[in-house]
Design a protein that fits this description.
The complex is a heterodimer of chains A (about 350) and B (about 325). By secondary structure, chain A is α/β, with parallel strands linked by helices. Chain A is built from 12 helices and 7 strands. Chain B folds into 2 domains: about 180 residues, Thiamin diphosphate (ThDP)-binding fold, Pyr/PP domains (Rossmann fold, 3-Layer(aba) Sandwich), CATH 3.40.50.970; about 130 residues, Rossmann fold, CATH 3.40.50.920. Classes of the chains: A alpha/beta (about 350), B alpha/beta (about 325).
Chain lengths: ~350, ~325
């Protein structure tokens, strides 16, 4: 799918503001299209386990991915970062193969859904235990600093409001600040950790107030506003790149789906859905695209069509591929030859 | 004659690793200028600036950091100040480090040093043996060196392996255990060693308990009993073959461990021998462990909490009488 391959910036490529805006929006459209398809496949019983989508967070995630450079930067995505993954350059096939359990995917059927990545290509694979990404990215950056290969690379990772309550998140932020690493930590405050509202999650005025406690810069942004996300994340990424240490970005928005596609999110009151937090960033972004002169309605329609075609192709390919064979899996958790348990 | 201790070997191995392999670095609390709580990194920061790094008190982040660094091609050595505190890093050890190779195909060569086991007065939170907990999880290698030469060779080998290794070093052995040289006759990780040959019973031990078992065997030798002592050296992989061959010669088995009694390494050894070598046994296999309480503070209680020369001897006599 060469179309997808061109959706991310290569190292050294100077990108105009207009191009970045267009690339972000296209990644949002692609992610939205893919996740709609994945949701249908799940509801049709074609995907086992679960489907976790980034509805309502496409602008924030896509903007972050678009501000990073594939091949140089590190992106540790979380559960609602399909748009960021696409903008960063993860192929649709990596997503569909992992969700559909193809043995040819990066996780080979050994892990599924959003637990996927290509660690050696700057795209680590998350574990389900929240908060650990901060220190994992810190280690990747510290390694490069020791190797003398850090250059102007930046590491970025994402958290939700729920993840900010973990010890791992706190330990990671503190470590990153102590080491003065070029990191961007993006917190999507989407108002609910599964069903738990923010007033049961934290008691501070705003999560961004925590930044000063760690000794790092803090930024706030309206997560429903694509252009605002691009501006704030762009300056945070550039500040980190310029050696100003870790940057915390807190975005306010609302998760416009359940925790997973098994969840109808009935616990979200109508008043919250109707509040400014509940604006759909896809609609806002489309208006911004046309009114700002970044794209015509015709171009957007063509992008949607292309996204649908690409998603269909990636799903079809993965569906035709074999799943893992228990008689062929080596059942070996060790890289060292001969260490596999024989029992 | 020159004399080297167990902790000298650990320090020397880290020195040699830093010198030979530029991918190696050390990260842990107080490991820098201070040289570590047990002086296992004394002088290393001065000699290898930028590669012996003080960490905040954040065991979870330390392990996650090591995983990230390993993905990028480094070979970190993480010093836990005490094995007990690795419980704070447990999640990253078992769920990130332990699963990484199987899930992603990318190995994470990290070595986590766990100053383990009891010394009198250390109490419940500075005395624990964590090897069984980590051995339970796939993807982790768990080694328990009992000699000065193994302390050196197994740390060198741990850092060279592509898998995450829990290197359980026993604090009681640090300065008590001495040898003429740290350069012994190394065996690879995954192979046990028969440290005292015999024919009447097999005692399987590891870490500091090897020395208690040896003393018991030597005392019983004065009465004509020939007790074979097997030092497991690594508990995962576990060298079932050497244990089984020994039991085939002796027909009797006692497994000795310093950890808590529920489950664990001694239970694993007995389970394997009973299920695969039942026909080799002339008596029911026995095990002796620490008591099922937290490790107590007072020396009177501490000495009675873990297996001792006396309790091991009594257990062997009982085994011989069955």
């Amino acid at each position: 799918m060469p179309e997808v391959e061109t959706q991310h910036a290569q190292v050294g490529a100077a990108e105009s503001w207009e191009d970045r805006v267009r690339r972000t929006f296209r990644a949002m459209v692609t992610a939205y299209t893919l996740e709609s398809k994945l949701s249908s496949l799940y509801k049709a019983g074609k995907i086992v386990g679960g489907v976790y989508i980034g509805r309502g967070q496409e602008a924030l995630s896509g903007a972050l991915g678009a501000c990073l450079r594939r091949g140089q930067d590190i992106f540790f995505p979380l559960i609602r970062d399909q748009a960021g993954r696409t903008a960063f350059g993860e192929t649709l096939l990596d997503a569909t193969r992992t969700y559909l359990g193809s043995v040819l995917g990066p996780m080979r059927g050994r892990d599924g859904n959003i637990h996927r990545g290509r660690p050696r290509e700057g795209l680590p694979a998350m574990i389900s235990h929240l908060g650990g990404g901060v220190a994992t990215v810190s280690g990747m950056l510290m390694a490069r600093r020791m190797q003398g290969s850090l250059g102007t690379a930046v590491g970025a990772t994402c958290a939700g409001d729920g993840a900010t309550s973990t010890g791992a998140f706190h330990e990671g932020l503190n470590l990153a600040a102590v080491e003065h690493l070029p990191m961007v930590i993006v917190i999507a405050n989407n108002q609910y950790a599964y069903s738990t509202p923010t007033e049961r999650q934290f008691a501070c005025r705003s999560l961004v107030d925590r930044a000063v406690g760690y000794g790092m810069a803090g930024h706030e942004v309206d997560g429903t506003d694509m252009l605002a996300c691009l501006e704030v994340l762009g300056s945070a990424v550039e500040a980190a790149r310029a050696g100003k240490g870790p940057q915390m970005v807190v975005a306010s928005l609302l998760r416009l789906s359940g925790h997973g596609e098994h969840d109808d999110a009935a616990y979200v009151p109508e008043s919250v859905r109707q509040s400014p937090l509940g604006r759909d960033c896809m609609t806002v972004a489309e208006t911004q695209m046309t009114e700002g002169g970044f794209a015509t309605a015709g171009e957007i329609a063509a992008w949607r069509e292309q996204a649908a075609e690409d998603v269909q192709a990636a799903v079809a390919t993965a569906q035709q591929e074999p799943g893992p064979d228990p008689f062929r899996d080596d059942w070996n958790a060790y890289a060292t030859p001969g260490f596999r348990e024989q029992t | 004659m020159a004399e080297v201790t167990y902790i000298d070997a650990i320090r020397e191995a880290q020195h040699d690793l830093l010198e030979k392999d530029e991918r190696v670095f050390i990260y842990g609390q107080d490991v820098g200028k201070f040289g570590g709580a047990f002086k296992a990194t004394q002088g290393l920061q001065e000699k290898f600036p930028g590669r012996v790094i003080d960490a905040p008190i954040s065991e979870d982040a330390m392990i996650a950091m090591a995983v990230g660094a390993a993905v990028e091609g480094m070979r970190p050595i993480i010093e836990m100040q005490f094995a007990d505190f690795s419980s704070v890093g447990f999640n990253q050890l078992v769920n990130n480090a332990g699963t990484h190779f199987y899930r992603t195909g990318v190995p994470v060569p990290i070595t986590v040093r766990l100053p383990s086991g009891g010394t009198a007065g250390s109490g419940p939170f500075h005395s624990q043996m964590m090897e069984a907990i980590y051995a339970h999880y796939p993807g982790l290698v768990v080694v328990t060196p009992a000699t000065v030469a193994d302390a050196y060779a197994m740390l060198m080998e741990s850092a060279a392996l592509d898998d995450p290794v829990l290197y359980c070093e026993h604090k009681f052995l640090y300065r008590w255990l001495k040898a003429d040289t740290m350069k012994g006759d190394p065996l690879p990780i995954g192979q046990a060693r028969i440290v005292h040959p015999g024919k009447h019973a097999t005692v399987v031990a590891y870490s500091a308990m090897v020395h208690e078992a040896l003393r018991a065997a030597e005392e019983l030798a004065t009465e004509g009993w020939e007790i074979e002592v097997v030092d497991l050296r690594s508990v995962k992989p576990l060298d079932t073959d050497t244990v089984m061959a020994s039991v085939a010669r002796t027909g009797r088995l006692l497994a000795v461990g310093e950890a808590f009694p529920w489950g664990g390494v001694t239970a694993e050894v007995i389970s394997r021998v009973a299920s695969e070598g039942f026909h080799l046994l002339d008596a029911p296999p026995q095990r002796i462990n620490a008591r099922d309480t937290p490790v107590p503070y007072h020396p009177n209680l501490w000495r009675a909490h873990r297996p001792t020369l006396e309790s091991i001897q009594a257990a062997i006599r009982n085994l011989l009488s069955l």
